[in-house]
Amino acid sequence: MSLSTSAARHKSLGDDLYKRSDKVNGELFALTYGALVVQLIKDYEDYDEVNKQLEKMGYNIGVRLIEDFLARTGLGRCKDFTEVGEVMAKVAFRSLLAITPSLIHHPVSPTQPKPAFSLIFDENPLTDFVELPEEAVEGGLVYAKVLEGVIRGALEMIQTSVTAQIVSDTLRGDERTELRVTLVRYLEEEMPPGDD
Amino acid sequence: MTTYIGGNRSSTSLITPSISILSQSQSPQVDAHVVQFAHLELIKTLLASASAERKRRAATEQFVSAELGQADSDRPGAADGTSDAEVIQTEIDDSVRKRLDEIGFKVGWTMAESLAKEKPRFPSAPPTSTSSSSAPPPSETHVLEVIKFICKDLWIALYDKQVDNLRTNHRGVYVLVDNAFKPLSRVSSVGGSKEEDEVARWVRFPGAV
Which of A27, A40, A96 shows the shortest C-beta gap to B31? Predict the structure, then answer.
């Protein structure tokens, strides 16, 4: 597999796009997101509901983002799910959030019939300066839940239905933050309307 | 949530403000398009949460007043059959505006705090602080310092450029003009009053900051 050359290509693609595009102060972004989470907690008073709203928000962002991303990078179809993970980690996250999460592929196995990959975040502009209060952790708040939604929304627009889940979260005391993306199925060209 | 405390508090004259900005600029950058999409969704999410909160509050109030055996007649636009759809919408709009204000305020406060630490020449406490410090009542020059701070440092930190034009009517009102305001440049016009509303919402956030 020519993974090494395509990996290098992805990396430089990500870098290029990052250099070329307009950027906004990351702190502003992080602070805004933080203030939003606080507001949502106040409004819903239910961490599950807040999680859901964050994911939904992410979904809507992802749906718009993917078109923009594809237009700017000019990338074509990925040949398999593995490549999806590569592009996501090396091009998308790199150019959009200026971070490169590590990528771990989970090959298909009897206990796991569908391919999956995990993104390991060493740093994350959203969460870098954030600390969750006790009750938020206990209540089950997943601060970076929006990322799950973004991935789900973006991939759904390219006919790939996935589940994206943060399986471990440093904000909740885990050792590392890992976001696992598992393929559900490829969608037909005509997508049925409505939610999933 | 903790805020980031960093940067160097150098007071040597060799380190000009521009250099110290460079050294402090550990500040990460995110792609502008992401932020624009996120902004839009933020407003939508707030709309949803505001109306959800309102429903919840109204439901609790109804419950409470039912418990107490009172008629809840004195709340305008109460969430029972008599409420007018328009009234609800205005209430929701108002609460969304309030939320955007609060969010902008928080963000602005934090940013100003961290920025003002870098400025040894700045005579008094950060601009958004309350009058808990023993600073003298704001004189004309003090206010001018604040406005200059906003136009230069704050705007640069946030949007990577300075404010293009500053006007005043000498009666306490300052107009900051920024041509090519990046966050707004991609809002497409839906047309009609809805667009005005949207644009007003967009502007409200930076304004609150």
Answer: A96
